[in-house]
Amino acid sequence: MPKILIIAGDASEDLEFFYPYQRLLEEGYEVHVAAPSRKKLRFVTHDFVEGYDTYTESAGHSWPADLALSEVDPAAYAALVLPGGRAPEYLRHDPHFGPVVRHFFDADKPVAHLCHAALALAPLGVLKGRRTSAYPACSPEVELGGGVFVDGAAVVDGKVVSARAWPDQPEWMRAFVGILRAHAPADGPAGS
């Protein structure tokens, strides 16, 4: 059974973590969660409220990290998922984050990233020359990282699928699962 890595941290967006996590389990993949350390992660929920110039934030669910980033052997994983939220702001500073993430891009493995994950990818240079979606407020970082910002729900560039935020998840995961089925198929849906 192919394994997929999700890199998350405290303040990852709740829906952007759980939707791909559960969808990939349903598809038949083994999914591992990596974070700066093995601990119970505390997520946040972002919402769009009329009258606010930006999104609001409240406490979300929690979930344990299976392993620390320092323990990850990226060669053991078929694909990578990076949810958004505020976690990417500090994940990019972890000394193990860059090498793990670069492995997936350098090896041309499937990668799905959403929302503010672009904040952590842009400094690594992996967005250079790529068409990339992200939360629209992150468009300057995409462009500073050499990417071409696209305001879209499921932007596919090779084996990389990106989207703006959790409202885009059906299109985002549909495109990503299609790439996985073509390049890293699961043994079958869980329970079959």
TrEMBL record:
Position of the signal peptide: none
All residue ranges annotated as the DJ-1/PfpI domain in the record: 3-177
Residue ranges crossing the lipid bilayer per the database entry: none
CDD domains, per the entry: GATase1_PfpI_1
Domain of life of the organism encoding this protein: Bacteria
Entry-linked InterPro entries: C56_PfpI-like, Class_I_gatase-like, DJ-1/PfpI
Similarity field: Belongs to the peptidase C56 family.
PANTHER family for this protein: DJ-1 PROTEIN (PTHR42733), DJ-1_THIJ_PFPI FAMILY PROTEIN (PTHR42733:SF2)
Name by which UniProt lists this protein: DJ-1/PfpI family protein
Species per Swiss-Prot/TrEMBL record: Streptomyces lunalinharesii
